[in-house]
Amino acid sequence: MLKKYVLLAVPMVLLGMTIFWLTSNKKRDGNMTLRVAFPYNRPVSAYEPTKIHLAPEYIFLENVYSPLVELSKENGTPIAGVAQSFEWKDGELHLQIRENLQTVDGIKITAQDVEFSLKRLLILSENTHGNFKDLICPVETLESIESACSGISVDGNTVILKSNGEKAFLLAMLSSIDFAILPKSSVDPKTLKITDYRNTSGPYYVENDNGNGMIKLLANKHHYNYSKNVPQEIELVPSGIDGAKDSITLFKENKVDFITTIDKLNPEKVIAYSKESGQTLHSTMNIRTFILTFTDKGLKKYNHRERLAIGKKMRSVFHKMYENTSGYEKTNQFFPALGDGSLADSENTEIQKIYEDSEDVAIKDLFVSIVRLGEFKQFEKPIKDAFPDVKLIEGNNAPAFTKYKNEDEMPDCFIGGPDTGFTEDISLISYSIYAGFFKMDRNQGSKWLADYMNVLDKNERLKRLKDLHLKTLKDVIIVPLVSAPYVALARKPWTIELSQIYANNPLWPVVKK
User: Fold this and answer.
1) pTM (two decimals)
2) Which pairing describes strands 204-209 and 158-162: parallel, antiparallel, or unpaired?
3) What H or E segment, with its residue span, contains residue 482?
4) pLDDT higher than 50, residue 383
5) Tens of pLDDT, residues 15-30
6) Mean pLDDT of all residues in the chain?
7) How far is residue 284's CA from residue 289's CA, in Å, rounded to a whole number?
8) What's the per-residue H, E or C state across 168-218?
């Protein structure tokens, strides 16, 4: 009986997608509609700014919500967002909220909405990009929105934040979409769940959602990032997930116009197709690192010598896979070379030598999860050739964000490709810690971040980060494989004005002039 229901489910999903396309195409202005291949198929109710584990979640949320400040795409300098201006006065950050920012239905966004959003984040306390509580409310525990937090106050339409740590971190942290500003009226006051994805603070709002990932967004003309050149309508089309066609196939069939930086396909396939098709390509610097990370289970199961052997063999697999691929480079470290968290030349040589001098050891019963790294099938044969009895699965998330019924379900290690960044990005650092890359649990990670952010001297902070980086590499908790860029592709005449130093993908910089 179960098989019957499964067989019926597939046509129903396809029917839903067909209806969505038909109704969308009937109403839309095709000239300014951007159809986006999107590697996710969740309903809008699944998106929550305070609980971001995967890149598609971040991309969706940054297009429908806005943070207090944004970062310049050229050099990462904080610039105006929901706050039209900001300045430090006697150790306090004063953020002047825009007077004319409204939702599509004309609901004004004020300092009270900002205060509500920040307190909501502190109450839910699951965000993964930044450790806001330690900077703003290190002592108080907020039980409700009405609870006081000594670090947050409002004066007219100005929000005042009092930071307990290095103040430079606070501005950069507030640019993360974890700190999205939500209109109070769009959230249930008791449960704090978002109930209205139409009235949002971002450049786009949800017009239609079929529940299976087909989502239509429309531009909010009241938003400060709005212009007639940006997509007036966006259609998110699930790609490369749960049987959906991959992005390039959809592009060739003229069902999408844009492939995002966080696509399921590996960058080299998008780069190759851009050369073949002549369409517009965007590429970042090499800010993505493919890494193998051992889980707690793997660290108990394999000793240091065995982990080195696994790492050495896996590095060889990936080096051979990508040796002739444009954009990919061998790497011995997690953070990009010459970046703020990178190794010194002597340390880089030391890590390289550790693997060169390591012994080959017979490895049995290795259990590996490939987490959102591209097409799963392309990794199967080379990894199974290197580890004949390996158990290889396609994972959807880092183990630290995954609930397992028992330890047998947990892999020994997982291979993923997180973005790392050249600068001291506290949002990315905290995500890497909470995702388990540096083998700290939530409490340990929060304490490390709190101590780190309280160090005012940047050189001393970076020494702590580099020491943690080096120790993790020496202990063979993280095994760096290759570094890569993030790429995006647009159908002409759309052009792409995204940053080369960030992996995120706001859609309003995809423009038609």
Assistant:
1) 0.85
2) unpaired
3) strand 478-484
4) yes
5) 444 444 444 444 445 6
6) 90
7) 13
8) HHHHHHHCCHHHCCCCHHHECCCCCCECCCCCCCCCEEEEEECCCCCEEEE
